Amino acid sequence: KGMKRISKSLTALLMATVLSISAVPTALASNVSESETGQVVSHSEEWVSPNKRVEVTVYDLGDGFTATETITDEYVSGAQRASGTKTQTSTVEVKNGSDVAATITVSGTFSYDGSKATVIDYSHSKSIRTGYEETGWGTAKGNSGFLRDAYVSAELTVKQLSTSKSFSGTAKVTCSKNG
């Protein structure tokens, strides 16, 4: 009777452990939550040629601000090859109503081979309209690793001078080990 109880307890513990471990990669690999970037207003994605994909997402940042993110992927050897080179550009245009308040652009060229992705070239830029003031700017890049794609990113925080309202925008490009 005692062995049966121990066996059931060990089985339950083993199942709980397996479920916990299998949930970790999903949680760690998830993208930035919608609440951090704003609510998605619209999204579209289109292959404009066999080697080029364009994705456009519009976010509502609140207080009359919106952000339009345009990501362009260009594959040198064609999409979804086992190895190759990919260039990705992300432009985030933050608007207050219909006026462009700031623009952030990040570009990265990556090599990938099925086991890793590496940043081989990158750039980032920003522009801020008169009437707004930069209060923060940060950039980062990294090669692929455990549960992480290779990436290049830039974040800009801007304050509207007339209202003192602040907002942040982030442009990020990524490449997985498979492109």
The overall strand count is 9
Largest sheet: 6 strands, antiparallel
Trace the largest sheet across and list its strands: 1-2-3-4-5-6
The overall pLDDT, averaged over residues, is: 80
Helical content (DSSP H or I, runs of 4+): 10-25%
Q: Ranges with pLDDT <50 over ≥5 residues?
A: 2-36
Order of helices and strands: HHEEEEEEEEE
Strand content bin = over 45%
Rg, please?
A: 21 Å
Distance between the termini: 55 Å
**What structural category arises from helix and sheet content?**
alpha+beta
Q: What characteristic shape results from the CA principal axes?
A: elongated
Q: Count of helical segments?
A: 2
What does it look like?
- With 179 residues, the protein is α+β, with helices and mostly antiparallel strands.
- It has helices at residues 2-29, 34-37, and strands at residues 39-49, 52-62, 65-75, 84-96, 99-112, 117-128, 132-142, 150-160, 166-175.
- A six-stranded antiparallel sheet has the order 1-2-3-4-5-6. The protein has a three-stranded antiparallel sheet with strand order 7-8-9, with no helix packed on it.
- The model is unreliable at 2-36 (pLDDT under 50).
